[in-house]
Design a protein that fits this description.
The longest helix has 27 residues. This protein has 147 residues and is an alpha+beta fold. Helix content is 25%, strand content 25%.
């Protein structure tokens, strides 16, 4: 092979690599820089006086471990209100007939399903009214709605 032919092949490879680099730069420049959320969710944080917070005892289930933040939330949620509290699901979740993960599933509901909250229990479950009967949902998937 002649040197001029080899030079032309190498110049073609270099030109192809430069074109590829330019395409990558365009893709990087045009990439999305944020996630577009179509529905905004308003979060309401209520401050509760220390005198209104009920002091909860130790959890019945010894294997249940709560960190300090979730223990404070449970104490705040354990207080009794004259008004009924409403909640909604933060994701698709199972509604169960008892307050444990092995209980029978009554239904699976979609994100945003609303229900009446009876109480938040210290074991990580929330007692609710679902289709006229008492049921349970994991507290991890409950968003309390201010009336």
């Amino acid at each position: 092979m002649k040197k001029t032919m080899l030079n032309h092949v190498l110049m073609g490879v270099i030109a192809l690599m430069l074109f590829s680099i330019c395409c990558l730069i365009v893709c990087i420049v045009n990439r999305p820089r944020y996630i577009d959320i179509s529905e905004q969710e308003n979060v309401v944080i209520n401050e509760v006086p220390v005198s209104d917070i009920a002091v909860s005892g130790a959890a019945d289930n010894a294997s249940t471990q709560l960190d300090a933040a979730s223990a404070d939330e449970d104490q705040e949620d354990a207080r009794t209100d004259d008004n009924t509290r409403q909640g909604k699901t933060s994701t698709r979740v199972n509604i169960r007939d008892a307050d444990n993960a092995t209980a029978r599933v009554l239904a699976t509901v979609e994100e945003g399903t609303t229900f009446e909250v009876i109480e938040n229990q210290s074991n990580g479950w929330t007692k609710i009214i679902y289709e006229g009967q008492e049921a349970y949902i994991s507290s991890d998937y409950v968003i309390l709605i201010n009336n």
